[in-house]
């Protein structure tokens, strides 16, 4: 009898649509197997031939955390290119490297957690480097390009599956897992949701990751917007992956829910499909889901929904068709692309004719970052490395380039007269340098086989690098940074500061006639003991610091001998502003300001090249040239040298406003971009440099502007001409503003479109934009929907948000404003027009908004244009908690005071009614709140 092979199950049948195949596979899984799929690390189901799977592979600007990979500029640098085609090609290269690395290491995941589309609302946010722009349109254009590259070009299968971070309104590291962003409806719909929506609708997004923080009092991992908005933007199944540890935060740090079983169930019901918690240990998440099922908090159908979203992504990745997308790793094309991206990311902020540098120029390259190629937390290890100094050597010749780092050279003397001494690393245990001469920090950091610091009569001269705000690093003459391992001893054992907890940073604290040296990673002071230097909780050693040479003296000496000085200043991405740590000021660190002044005093031909993950407020009036670039990856130094030499005309543009002073900034936790006039959209001050700004080595003329509205769109066209003598790229930008807005505050100007143009000398190109009328809409809180206000709209064309070269006006037909139908729907409390002293909070733990007075217990709300019909006689308020509500009409008109019910829980609402007699017609309503209450709704009746 002939044995027949078992029939191929439908989920393995490539002729069937993915949805049917997902349904078939889902039906074959047991409940226990499906529950196990909800953790980040999904086990294999061997009986079905289903492989293990993991969500999460960091790939923000190259493959991260998996060893060497091509390192592209930071995300904010990619945003500064304003070039979606370039960014798409970068995403494509990154996805190829993911596939190539996956072929040799199954730890490399195909579900990539990139890009970050959080808007760069506040420049002090520690993760500024991870976003693209402060503008939602530019952010979505760049993010869409990157996700398309990550997705790949196959018509059916995806090379990688991108997940957008971090849903929603997330711009602070300070108290990031317990703070709440108060986001009014207009900001929610016009700003924070917008970047996510456009990117998801473009069709190359596999999912999102909720943020750690709360929005309007509710954790993002319980966000009702996941179902109400996100899943309505596409017909594809989207995979929602939790951020690391966030499911447990719902109970442990946020205390939002009482039990982990209840919190896990609530997150799953809100739309979270994959739980990233407790590392590789899935047992606790599995136990919580099982417990929630047993208690009736979840059904098997709820689990099925989440697993279906995951399986849909896995089918798109080709896992069940044995389809393997081609990979490529560290190719000549990827190296060239890394250099091109680094060149395009450089923004020329100021130039009084000093740049480009003339052939034969003698250049002094100075500053803390002059011979550095810094990585950040989401970088891969460098395969290739180019510092500004190396780039200048390569481009101008070593004989014409001099260098001074500008660090202080110091020794530390102990009370017994000896000095701290760095012992050489034993030759047998020292790791070999890589091909570029750099030691792999993974081989050095945390090592305990190297000798700790000792003491001797002469000691070791250390380089003291002051990064500002009292944070410093100490480096031995051979380049090794002082670091502290788990055993507490201080060793010269790190190539660079780094790690989740940086172990290479210290602080000098004055004490008596000397200093205590505090190690910031442990919080303990340095103690000199007989068995070596270590950190300890008690008996710190008082050290006397002697300075052998000040950094500014070395800079001044080097600068005086050159034709031009290039001061390379900025930040280390692991220090003073990064994930878990916000900045406290826009100012350049004081030590770097001293170096800049020393260079400028010694040589007026000084170029400031800022290399940083975020904007600075710098005094630039005395400087003839200023450039900025984000940390530019492996080709950063070559790129900077080529731009300085004029081999490439700079084409980067600022993706966010550079403010002149800390006083221009709102509070870090103030998410109301409209009310506090944030970003270029609303900022009314004078920026240091505006959004969209960037100069070139040539000039461009704009002309022949036409604009017409017809058939549901606005067609805008204009000409751009390169009027200079060299080929260069221009970023032509189109903005709009409502010329005669109603009482609703509208942006000063708003980016509608841009085009990245490369033009030969004398070349003219016509730029045309076709804009749907929806681009001119705003969120009408009175109607709870988007609306186009009829009337005139200014169209502004130019080279930045402030450098407007052409303008015209179009008249658009729209829907006139209508008064609030308060007799029918009342006033939802959060739908205010203006507020003072108010925060938006959660009405219930599942959905809805309420408002509450902020810190001092008083607040006021304004609702404009309320239609009272033929008149009203009563007012009602839906409130929880204790306090008082005062409702007044037209400010000085009728008013009513409603004492809230006796103090109750924040979700125990009651409706109170009292007399309020007001004549018919349209009125403004003011509502004052006093005390610890929550107001959900105000109603009127005749």
TrEMBL record:
The keyword Nucleotide-binding does not apply. Residues 825-941 form the CBM6 domain. Gene3D superfamilies: 2.60.120.380, Galactose-binding domain-like, Glycoside hydrolase family 3 C-terminal domain, Glycoside hydrolase, family 3, N-terminal domain, Immunoglobulins. It comes from the Bacteria. It comes from Streptomyces broussonetiae. Pfam families: CBM_6, Fn3-like, Glyco_hydro_3, Glyco_hydro_3_C. InterPro entries: Actin-crosslinking, BXL, CBM6, Cellulose-bd_IV, Fn3-like, Galactose-bd-like_sf, GH, Glyco_hydro_3_C. Keywords: Hydrolase, Signal. This is Glycoside hydrolase family 3 C-terminal domain-containing protein. One of its GO terms (molecular function) is hydrolase activity. Belongs to the glycosyl hydrolase 3 family. The keyword Metal-binding does not apply.
């Amino acid at each position: 009898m002939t044995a027949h092979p078992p029939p191929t199950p439908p989920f393995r049948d490539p002729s069937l649509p993915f949805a049917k195949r997902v349904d078939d596979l889902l039906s074959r899984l047991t409940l226990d197997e499906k529950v196990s799929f909800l953790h980040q690390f999904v086990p294999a189901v061997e009986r079905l031939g289903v492989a293990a799977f993991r969500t999460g592979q960091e790939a923000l600007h190259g493959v991260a955390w998996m060893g060497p990979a091509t390192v592209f500029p930071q995300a904010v640098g990619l945003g500064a290119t304003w070039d979606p085609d370039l960014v798409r090609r970068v995403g494509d290269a990154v996805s190829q490297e993911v596939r190539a690395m996956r072929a040799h290491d199954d730890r490399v995941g195909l579900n990539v957690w990139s890009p970050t589309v959080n808007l760069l609302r506040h420049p002090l946010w520690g993760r500024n480097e991870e976003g693209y722009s402060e503008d939602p349109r530019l952010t979505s254009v760049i993010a869409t390009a990157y996700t398309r590259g990550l997705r790949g070009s196959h018509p059916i299968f995806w090379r990688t599956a991108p997940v957008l971070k971090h849903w929603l309104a997330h711009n602070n590291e300070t108290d990031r897992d317990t703070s709440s962003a108060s986001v009014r409806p207009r900001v929610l719909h016009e700003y924070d949701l917008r970047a996510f929506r456009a990117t998801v609708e473009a069709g190359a997004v596999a999912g999102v990751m909720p943020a750690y923080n709360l929005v309007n009092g509710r954790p993002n991992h319980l966000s009702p917007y996941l179902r109400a908005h996100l899943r309505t933007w596409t017909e594809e199944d989207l995979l929602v992956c939790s951020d690391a540890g966030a499911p447990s935060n719902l109970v442990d740090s946020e205390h939002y829910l009482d039990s982990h079983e209840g919190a896990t169930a609530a997150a799953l019901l809100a739309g979270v499909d994959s739980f990233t918690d407790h590392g590789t240990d899935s047992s606790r998440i599995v136990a919580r889901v099982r417990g929630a099922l047993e208690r009736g908090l979840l059904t098997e159908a709820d689990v099925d929904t989440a697993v279906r979203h995951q399986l849909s992504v896995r089918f798109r990745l080709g896992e069940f068709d044995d389809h393997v997308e081609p990979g490529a790793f560290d190719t000549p094309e990827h190296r060239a692309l890394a250099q091109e991206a680094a060149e395009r990311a450089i923004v020329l902020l100021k130039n009084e004719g000093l740049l480009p540098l003339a052939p034969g120029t003698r250049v002094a390259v100075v500053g803390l970052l002059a011979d550095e190629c810094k990585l950040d937390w989401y970088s891969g290890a460098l395969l290739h490395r180019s510092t500004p100094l190396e780039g200048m050597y390569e481009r101008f010749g070593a004989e014409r380039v001099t260098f001074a780092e500008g660090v202080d050279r110091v020794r530390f003397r102990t009370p017994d007269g000896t000095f701290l001494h760095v012992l050489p690393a034993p030759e047998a245990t020292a790791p070999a340098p890589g091909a570029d001469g750099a030691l792999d920090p993974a081989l050095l950091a945390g090592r305990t086989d190297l000798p700790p610091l000792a003491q001797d009569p002469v000691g070791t001269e250390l380089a003291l690098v002051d990064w500002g705000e009292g944070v410093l690093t100490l480096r031995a003459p051979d380049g090794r940074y002082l670091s502290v391992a788990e055993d507490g001893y201080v060793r010269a054992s790190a190539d660079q500061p780094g790690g989740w907890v940086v172990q290479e940073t210290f602080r000098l604290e004055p004490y008596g006639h000397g200093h205590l040296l505090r190690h910031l990673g442990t919080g303990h002071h340095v103690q000199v003991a007989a068995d070596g230097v270590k950190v300890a909780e008690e008996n710190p050693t008082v050290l006397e610091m002697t300075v052998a040479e000040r950094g500014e003296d070395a800079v001044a000496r080097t600068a005086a001998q050159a034709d031009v000085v290039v001061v390379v200043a900025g930040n280390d991405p692991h220090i003073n502003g990064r994930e878990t740590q916000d900045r406290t000021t826009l100012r350049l660190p004081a030590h770097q300001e001293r170096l800049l002044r020393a260079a400028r005093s010694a040589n007026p031909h000084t170029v400031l090249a800022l290399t940083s993950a975020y904007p600075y407020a710098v005094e630039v009036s005395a400087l003839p040239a200023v450039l900025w670039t984000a940390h530019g990856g492996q080709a950063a130094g070559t790129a900077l040298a080529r731009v300085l030499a004029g081999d490439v005309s700079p084409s980067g543009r600022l993706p966010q406003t550079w403010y002149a002073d800390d006083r221009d900034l709102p509070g870090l936790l103030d998410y109301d971009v409209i009310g506090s006039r944030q970003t270029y959209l609303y900022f009314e001050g004078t920026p240091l440099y505006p959004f969209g700004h960037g100069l070139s080595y040539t000039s461009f003329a704009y002309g022949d502007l036409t604009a017409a509205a017809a058939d549901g769109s606005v067609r805008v066209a204009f000409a751009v001409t390169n009027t200079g003598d060299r080929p260069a790229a221009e970023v032509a930008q189109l903005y709009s503003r409502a010329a005669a807005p109603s009482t609703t505050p509208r942006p000063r100007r708003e980016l509608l479109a841009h085009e990245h143009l490369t033009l030969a000398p004398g070349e003219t190109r016509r730029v045309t934009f076709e804009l749907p009328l929806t681009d001119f809409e705003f969120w009408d809180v009175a109607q709870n929907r988007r609306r186009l206000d009829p009337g005139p709209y200014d169209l502004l064309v130019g080279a930045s948000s402030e450098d407007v070269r052409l303008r015209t006006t179009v008249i658009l037909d729209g829907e006139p404003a209508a008064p609030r139908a308060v007799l029918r729907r009342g006033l939802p409390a959060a739908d205010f027009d203006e507020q003072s002293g108010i925060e938006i909070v959660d009405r219930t733990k599942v959905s809805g908004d309420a408002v509450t007075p902020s810190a001092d217990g008083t607040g006021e709300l304004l609702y404009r244009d309320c239609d009272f019909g033929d008149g009203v006689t009563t007012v009602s308020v839906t409130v929880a908690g204790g306090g008082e509500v005062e409702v007044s009409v037209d400010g000085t008109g009728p008013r009513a005071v409603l004492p809230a019910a006796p103090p109750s829980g924040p979700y125990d609402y009651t409706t109170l009614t009292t007399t309020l007699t007001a004549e018919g017609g349209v009125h403004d309503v003011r509502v004052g709140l006093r005390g610890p209450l929550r107001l959900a709704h105000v109603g009127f009746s005749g």
